[in-house]
Design a protein that fits this description.
Blueprint: H1 6-19, H2 29-40, E1 45-48, E2 54-57, E3 62-72, E4 77-83, E5 89-94, H3 99-102, E6 106-110, E7 116-123, E8 144-148, H4 155-160, E9 168-171, E10 176-177, E11 182-185, H5 188-207, E12 213-220, E13 237-243, E14 246-248, E15 259-265, E16 268-269, H6 272-285, E17 289-293, H7 300-306, E18 312-321, E19 327-330, H8 331-345
Parallel strand pairs: 3-12, 3-13, 13-18, 14-18, 15-17
Antiparallel strand pairs: 1-2, 2-12, 4-5, 4-9, 6-7, 6-9, 7-8, 10-11, 11-19, 15-16, 15-18
């Protein structure tokens, strides 16, 4: 059955909807509920795990040789570490959030009593006309701070708003899909992949496809801090594939318009067998793909292995440039990833 390009457009649209829900690791309940309802709306069974992720059953015939597809809806972000005497906030990063590209971004601070207070992340003493060391100052989470968009000038005034240490700081994603098909946003890693799996689920639903092997989807919520995929593996799973961002950068072949197949990352090589089958699926389906090695990367499926599960593992994803910053991909990369999933499952 032909997989139409409309499923890539659907995937991008659903990713944009999910990107609008703030969900740094540890603060993912609303995003997880959205994911659960999105898969249920396509007719698939979905449930929340104790850990807060979403486990979806896409059906399929052979439950003794099941496939586990993993993506994550948690993102980078920050947490209030200190309320300063002047009412500004020092934050600690959640995941690999980097102060160099956090600077000058708008943020939302979520208080424990349900308030949402906007602000901006700036270098301390951020005015170039005042600070002669502006260009030479190293950006760290000790040299940038959050200025609240409220009339606060002291610790007491900030606390009066409900701000406390431990509050979540979410960075504005600035999502945009261009007429030329580029998808630009923070946190395409990995909400774009959640959109891709929804696009694949819609394809199965629309074409009334019964998969030859049982397939589960696990949308995890702690990937950015290293243990997202360490639980909730159903009985009968023999292979797990992370659908995560494909790396784009110097020394790698992949572009934003391709699907990347990862042979090895910082955690070591992926299953030679699974990687070979992914390459064969890309060739058979006519997908534009690249095989690459990611120098600084880890995935959900590696957390699954480290948890002790006896499975084979692989990793694919649409090419994403500027990872952990303001990221960019393309709808062609989304489509090529869908083609690999279709080919791997023989549908």
């Amino acid at each position: 059955m032909k997989l139409d390009y409309e499923y890539a457009r659907f995937a991008a649209k659903k990713a944009a909807e999910l990107l609008a829900i703030d969900s740094p690791s540890g603060f993912t309940a609303k995003a997880a509920e959205w994911v659960k309802e999105a898969f249920e709306s396509l007719g698939f069974s979905a449930e929340l795990t104790r850990k807060g992720g979403v486990l979806i059953d896409l059906g399929g015939e052979d439950a003794s040789d099941a496939l586990f597809l993993e993506a994550h809806t948690d993102t980078l972000g920050g947490m209030v570490a200190e309320i300063k005497d002047n009412g500004r906030l020092r934050i600690t990063n959640i995941g690999g959030m980097n102060a160099n590209n956090a600077e000058a971004e708008n943020v939302r601070v979520y208080t424990r009593d349900g308030k949402v207070i906007e602000g901006v992340c700036q270098l301390i003493n951020a005015s170039i006309h005042v600070n002669g060391d502006y260009s030479s100052t190293k950006r760290t989470f000790d040299t940038v701070e959050i200025l609240l968009d409220a009339d606060v000038n002291s610790e007491e005034e900030a606390r009066a708003l409900g701000i406390e240490v431990g509050d979540i700081v979410a960075f504005e994603p600035r999502t945009r899909i261009t007429e030329s098909g580029y998808i630009k946003s923070r946190f395409l890693d990995d909400k774009l992949s959640v959109g891709i799996l929804l696009g694949f689920a819609k394809y199965l639903h629309d074409e009334k496809i019964v998969l030859p092997r049982r397939v589960y989807v696990h949308v995890t919520v702690y990937e950015e801090v290293g243990h997202g995929g360490s639980a909730s593996l159903p009985e009968g799973v023999t292979e797990a594939i992370s659908v995560d961002m494909g790396c784009v950068g110097e020394g790698l072949r992949c572009t934003e318009r391709q699907v990347s197949i990862c042979a090895k990352d910082s955690g070591g090589p992926y299953s030679y067998e699974v990687t070979g089958k992914l390459i064969a699926a890309a060739k058979k389906g006519g997908a534009d793909y690249a095989v690459d090695i990611y120098p600084h990367y880890g995935s959900d499926v590696e957390a699954t292995l480290k948890a002790g599960y006896d499975i084979r593992h692989g990793l694919i994803g649409a090419g994403v440039y500027a990872s952990h910053g303001y990221e960019r991909s393309h709808i062609d990369g989304v489509f090529n990833t869908l083609l690999v999933l279709k080919g791997y499952l023989g549908v």
